[in-house]
TrEMBL record:
PANTHER family tied to this protein: NAD KINASE
Cited Gene3D superfamilies: Probable inorganic polyphosphate/atp-NAD kinase, domain 1 (3.40.50.10330), Probable inorganic polyphosphate/atp-NAD kinase, domain 2 (2.60.200.30)
Domain of life of the source: Eukaryota
Keyword Nucleotide-binding set for record: yes
Gene Ontology MF annotations: ATP binding; NAD+ kinase activity
Family statement: Belongs to the NAD kinase family.
GO biological process: NAD+ metabolic process; NADP+ biosynthetic process
This enzyme's EC code(s): 2.7.1.23
Reactions catalysed: NAD(+) + ATP = ADP + NADP(+) + H(+)
UniProt-recorded name of the protein: NAD(+) kinase
Claim: Ribonucleoprotein is one of the keywords in the record: no
Lineage: Eukaryota, Viridiplantae, Streptophyta, Embryophyta, Tracheophyta
Organism: Artemisia annua (Sweet wormwood)
Keywords per UniProt: ATP-binding, Kinase, NAD, NADP, Nucleotide-binding, Transferase
């Protein structure tokens, strides 16, 4: 009603204004009285309501238009900020990648002087960039010549030289034993593939391994018994230095003080430099123990020899009953290895003021999973590959898997099984609510970004090799690319025969009773 009155007085005001502007106008002067009367008359039913509705509608429209304009500006600013963060991340990943991903013989170019300098450094955690630049032989191979001072409490500052080894393609024919770096040759316009990256790789020791780290699955009596026996044998027969986790050392000492020679570390920070001490890692357990072992190495990983003491053992080809024969052969070399690629994942927080506030990288051997956690809402994940938009995942989540992980969670979600030596990243949705969402396999060189959109109904959760869950709020993202540090695992036969053995024995792949010979008459 008040609004209606205001509108009436506005009308009157306008009439006065018109009158003043155009000089005295008898018609208007007379009509002024008429208008007054009209206005004072009871209004026709509904007019005020319409005016109220109209003015409210106009206000709403203007608010919406203003919000849309503001939203567009902030979305543009946000997109620019994400692009910047993404570029910084990509740049960092590119810098972390070795210049040449082929691993060949060690050229011995880390001088004794350098070695001497390194040797007086204490075991301190290093930032990733420092670790990368420490790869003195990094251009063409794994540096296995690092020398360091052991600062463990139970070791009297002994200088240990890490055993060096050489990695080469198995069927090398060149006389000088030198691997050709050109994978594709474009000579004279003819395109030929000179070398393939996924050939069988062989590891040959150049100096005998001295330090062995044994990692064991916890809470298993058979593992404890085998570990104690193996430690004794490696010490007495092979004269090796043995490292175990603090928990395992305590277990061994509880059994007997004989195991006093076994070495361990005092705090988590010392684990950062394990790769500089350890020549060989032995795992006793299932696939989970191999994943555990890989997670201990944030940079280069020494060769891993996985013994099977679990139920499935996809990545554990060695039989624990025959450990002596097997370890003898491995310590002597050469051995076939599978270079298992890892993915490097960064969680990028929307709330982080700068890229330095984001959490450090996490390396996974199997996969990183982004799912809905305990939320009952559909996950809503925007996926980008390099500069291309890929899709929006609406379902239970998404798995970004290595080819080694292709037989784990990704397989359960409908992804392909891929030979572990094939370089690539599997993009496998989990229960997508769409009929046409097939899994993808992407090339190794891409960078993927999975973003929880701002309008997402819930949070998402990232987990790394099935562990270490991290919540992703709307606006947060996970950036993932191939890591520079693969996990070299020893093969019982070779990469391919071990892979087929695992899918046959572990997964009973395509197991079906053979059709009998007698049946319908054969076609002539
Ligand atoms: N639905 C699923 O299949 C599912 C669900 C969650 C996690 N996982 C897998 O479990 C892994 C963690 O393993 P864990 O041992 O710590 O947990 P776990 O004890 O729950 O065992 C998971 C199972 O996956 C098998 N496995 C692990 N890596 C494998 C691989 N590369 N190829 C074939 N099988 C493999 C293990 O042998 C084990 O039987 C995760 O990386 C993930 O791949 C699978
Ligand atoms: N040294 C370790 N310290 C702590 N946890 C470990 C260690 N080794 C393995 N684990 C964890 O113990 C769990 C079981 O290990 P693993 O998968 O090797 O044995 P398993 O379950 O008996 O094998 P399988 O799955 O083949 O039956 C995994 O979640 C793994 O992460």
């Amino acid at each position: 009603m008040n609004t209606a009155k205001n509108n009436s007085s506005e009308l009157l005001g306008n009439a006065h204004y018109v009158a003043q502007e155009n000089g005295p106008n008898p018609l208007i002067a007379n009509s002024e009285q008429g208008i007054k009367e009209m206005v004072e008359q009871p209004h026709v039913d509904g007019i005020e309501d319409h005016l109220v509705e109209f003015s409210e509608a106009i206000t709403t429209v203007s608010k919406v238009l203003r919000r849309a304009a503001e939203g567009k500006v902030s979305a543009q600013a946000e997109a620019a900020e994400w692009k910047r963060k993404y570029e910084v991340e990509r740049e960092r990943n590119l810098q972390l990648e070795p210049k040449d991903l082929t691993f060949t013989e060690h050229k011995g170019d880390c001088s004794e002087q350098q070695v001497g300098r390194d040797s007086i450094q204490h075991l301190q955690p290093m930032p990733d960039t420092a670790k990368t630049s420490q790869r003195c032989c990094g251009e063409h191979g794994i540096c296995s010549h690092e020398v360091l001072r052991e600062s463990y409490s139970n070791v009297q500052c002994k200088i240990t030289k890490k055993a060096s080894f050489k990695l080469q393609w198995c069927n090398i024919t060149d006389k000088d034993d030198q691997h050709k770096h050109d994978i594709v040759s474009f000579e004279k316009g003819n395109i030929t593939t000179a070398e393939r990256s996924s050939k069988q790789i062989s590891l040959k020791w150049e100096s005998p391994p001295q330090n062995v780290l044994i990692l064991t699955k916890p809470h298993s009596t058979s593992v404890k018994v085998l570990c104690a026996e193996m430690v004794r044998w490696l010490k007495e027969k092979e004269k090796l230095n043995i490292y175990v986790e603090p928990r395992v050392r305590n277990d061994l000492l509880t059994e007997s003080v004989y195991y006093n020679f076994v070495q361990t570390w005092n705090d988590e920070q010392e684990i950062w430099r394990l790769h500089e001490i350890v020549d060989l890692v032995v795992t006793l357990g299932g696939d989970g123990t191999v994943l555990w072992a890989a997670s201990k190495f944030k940079g280069p990983v020494p060769p891993v020899v996985p013994f099977s003491l679990g139920s499935l053992g996809f990545m554990t080809p060695f039989y624990s009953e025959r450990y002596k024969e097997c370890l003898k052969s491995i310590l002597k070399g050469p051995m076939s290895i599978t270079l298992r690629h890892r993915l490097q994942c960064h969680v990028i927080r929307d709330a982080a003021k700068s890229e330095y506030e984001n959490e450090g990288p996490i390396l996974v051997l199997n996969e990183v999973t982004i799912d809905r956690g305990i939320s009952s809402f559909l996950t809503n994940l925007e996926c980008y590959c390099d500069n291309s938009f890929v899709t929006i995942v609406q379902g239970d989540g998404l798995i970004l898997s290595t080819t080694s992980g292709s037989t784990a969670y990704s397989l359960a979600a409908g992804g392909s099984m891929v030979h572990p030596q094939v370089p690539g990243i599997l993009f496998t949705p989990i229960c997508p609510h769409s009929l046409s969402f097939r899994p993808l396999i992407l090339p190794e060189h891409v960078t993927l970004r999975i973003q929880v959109p701002f309008n997402s109904r819930g949070h998402a959760w990232a987990s790394f090799d099935g562990k270490d869950r991290k919540q992703l709020a709307p606006g947060d993202a996970l950036v993932c690319s191939m890591a520079a540090w693969p996990v070299p695992t020893a093969c019982r036969g070779d990469s391919t025969s071990d892979f087929f053995h695992s899918i046959h024995d572990g997964l009973h792949w395509n197991l079906r009773k053979t059709q009998s010979f007698d049946g319908p008459p054969r076609e002539s």
